[in-house]
Amino acid sequence: QLQLVESGGGLVQPGGSLRLSCAASGFTLDYYAIGWFRQAPGKEREGVSYISSSGGSTNYADSVKGRFTISRDNAKNTVYLQMNSLKPEDTAVYYCAADYSYYSGGYYLPRSKNEYDYWGQGTQVTVSS
To answer: Distance between CA 77 and CA 28 in Å, rounded?
Structure first.
């Protein structure tokens, strides 16, 4: 069974940090670009950060640029999202998603959530004092 599982969410004070993990089971992430998305109550799901299958390309939403860092460890079949200087407006359910991009190349970054083939179940991040 092909699965993505997010972990690392929780409650943190403003200014704090969390590291989210996205682990794949049932398939290898080597040829998959990964995106992190988030959805706050009453809002649409939005893209936060993306990393290409090679790890050579990354991209961030303006709202998180300079505070979040995406990375991947293909040996561990896991992608990470390091979140620093967290703000209350970062509160949301965070999802990771995988897009098979073998034919698009190792630097391809799918930005639309409609391009992604697999999704995790999400992990809650709450930033509050």
So the answer is: 6
